[in-house]
Specification:
Number of strands: 22
Radius of gyration: 22 Å
Strand order of the largest sheet: 1-5-6-7-9-8
Distance between the termini: 62 Å
Oligomer: single chain
Helix content: 10-25%
Number of helices: 8
Low-confidence stretches: none
Strand content: 25-35%
Order of helices and strands: EEHEHEHHHHHEEHEEEEEEEEEEEEEEEE
Amino acid sequence: MMNASKLALDKNRRMIVISDIHGNLQLLQKLLDKIAYTPEDYLFINGDMCEKGADSLGVIDFLTSLTAQLERVYVTKGNCDILINYVFNEVEGIKNYMKKQPNSILNEMLKKQDKSLADFHSLKDLSKFYRTHYKNEIDWLEALPIAYETEHFIIIHAGIEDIPNWQSTTIENALSMPAFYEKGHRADKTVIVGHWPVVNHTTQSICSNNPLIDLDKRIIAIDGGNQIKREGQLNALVVDGEQISFTFVDELQEMAMIQQSHQDTTARVGTVTYPNYELEIIKEEPFFTHCKNIELGITQWVKNEFITRNNNQLISNNDISTTFLSVQQGEIIKVINNDCSGYTLIKNDNGEIGWIPKQCLYS
């Protein structure tokens, strides 16, 4: 049975939940500033502090200091926070992972000591190195609980099993369960999770990395695809009394003002997203192609530049929005992709991601 810590929270204080920081300390600090976080708030960091971003050690250092100084900061572990166990258990495959993923805490630890993977003859030697130089960080990560339980919420990285006693969920599923929102659960509380990017659930709705708040299903999913998707974001879920809201920050830099208003009349929404990339062409048009998504059995309008052939199979070569947006003159948007013909991919202030005609950006 996993270790779930019970908490009694003061209802007069805000509860803030953030997950999947993925080694991006600057974005975390930017988000905390944006939500005006103070020590009076309850702050939950719901796993995956490490990997993918360039400063996993910085995130851990920041959070260990925060938890030592403040009494209302709570951290759970995620699957990306325990990869070092593959070294300790001498799983040879971790070497290939380290070679392919330079932005890994395992490589950060080596680099900080002027070492590289090539300096170690065995995983046993590498284990000794990590335990010698990073014992405090390893012990802190290992001691983190799997879940927190409050009066109204279960806060866990990936999800709980659909069983009568959710506390019997295996640690593997608690940390690594894919697509928890599609599975459901029997607990009498709302489960707040990260791990699985929310955009993966927008195949038939407006493309967005915003939290998915489904109180009827008793699930809130908050992984904004930070460090995974180019247009991904770091989300903060804010529970303030009876009100549940969210705020996000991202790393998109190119801003633009809409010069011409555009009202979409197609009502096309959706996303092509992992792992459902196989397509069958229904109708080709100059800028978009109407396709059947093989795995999902739905139709989507995919930008032509994103359709390629792979071993005689048509696929989308990346995650891509199939949503079309309306915009108003004077509106400030973020540009995601302006390299395609006819249309520009944008992100609006509400976090919606979709295509608009290029002429909207030019007077």
